[in-house]
Structure formats: C-alpha cells, structure tokens
Amino acid sequence: MAVTTLDISMSLDSFIAGPNQTVEEPLGEGGLQLHEWIFGLASWRERHGQSGGVTNADSEVLQESVEATGAVVMGRRMFSGGEGPWENDPVAGGWWGEEPPFGVPVFVLTHHARQPVELQGETAFTFVSEGVEAALEQARAAAGDRNVAVAGGANVVQQFLAARLLDEIQIHLVPVLLGGGVRLFGPGDEQPALELTRVIDSPTVTHLRYRVAN
To answer: For residues 27 and 122, what is the distance between their CA atoms, to the nearest angstrom?
Structure first.
C-alpha cells in the first residue's frame, strides 16, 4: 500500500540543517556535511546524470526509496531558497536547471500562486498555496500506487509531523555534530509515536526506519 514517507539526514545532535540558512548557503553553516555520504553513490550519481560511483548498502537504501516514490512534496525554500513574489526570486527556476533529478511530479508548497512548470526528465513542478493537506492530496493522486515522499525543507517536514500526515520516517544518522541549526523534532512539540522497523549500518551513516503511529 502506498504511504507518505520522509527520508532525511540528521546529525548526532539532532539537526537537519545548520544555523544561518541563506540562499547562498541553503543548508546552513556546516549543513552540507549531512549529505556527503550520498554524493559518491552510484544510485545518486545516476539520477544526476553522472557515471560511476559506489554500490553498497547506502546506495541500495537510496535506490529503494527512488523506485518506491511516485510523487514528491517540498517547500518553497527547498525549491529555490527564496521567499516573497516569484518575480523577485533569484532562483525562481529551482536549483536543478532544465533537467531536475526527480523524474516524478513534484508539488511545491508556497504562499505565492504560480503556473505549473514542466521540465526535462519527466519532472513537473506544481505550486500549491492551499497548505500541506492540499499538496498531499494532489501528490497522492499523481503517485498512484507508489509512495509520496516529503522532501523538506525543515518547516514543511515539521508541518507534516504536526498534522500527523507521515506514515514512515527514515533518518539517515550522520556522525557529525553541528552544534546548532534546525531540529527535526522541536522541543515542547507533541511528538509522534515511532516504531523502529529497520536498521542498516555503514561506516559513514546509519539508516533508521520508523513507522509513525498517527
């Protein structure tokens, strides 16, 4: 059965982005360290039009997620790093150029309406201004019997958690300490009940999969 999933890298001190996020440094100070485990994987490189790479347990975890995903939901900040009217956004076309790596429909949460954008590689961006529930409804319709992946950024993830709209969370726990930034689970929030269903360990990252009891 199709589920709504979250795959996210997190530091040992529970941050999913570093402090002081900007358009120039969207992952915050030191935040790129959270994703270095993925850049050399064959499955990641193939999606980004690159050859070579390592095939190992980490690569298999990533490939498994890619094959299961039929649509993606993300926030405006993940799409472009900007805010406000689109005509003022310096990266209004998104970070990925003319051929994004998704290969499935992507639904972008925004406060500013915009017409859909279709690009190469079977990626189409639809901009949703009615909130996370509306974005998820559209994504589910587009995904069919495949999963809907929530891609971030942090604010969107926290909205999905607060609304109890996630079925599964896979945390890629990276052995770094950021010392500050954006947390996945904020202090004082009503936290979801999580059931650990799988652990896959490697020298650079530990993959922890949880079922969310909504």
So the answer is: 26
Q: Round to whole Å and give the CA distance between 86 and 175.
A: 37
Integer Cα distance of 183 and 125 in angstroms: 27
Q: Domain extents for the chain?
A: 4-213
pLDDT at 188 over 80: no
Q: For the segment 108-142, what is each residue's pLDDT rounded down to a tens digit?
A: 999 999 999 887 667 889 999 999 999 999 999 99
The residue assigned the tokens 């689970």 is 185
**How confident is the model over 72-90, as pLDDT tens digits?**
999 998 898 888 888 888 8
Superfamily for domain range 4-213: Dihydrofolate Reductase, subunit A (3.40.430.10)
pLDDT at 28: 86
What's this model's pTM, rounded to 2 decimal places? 0.91
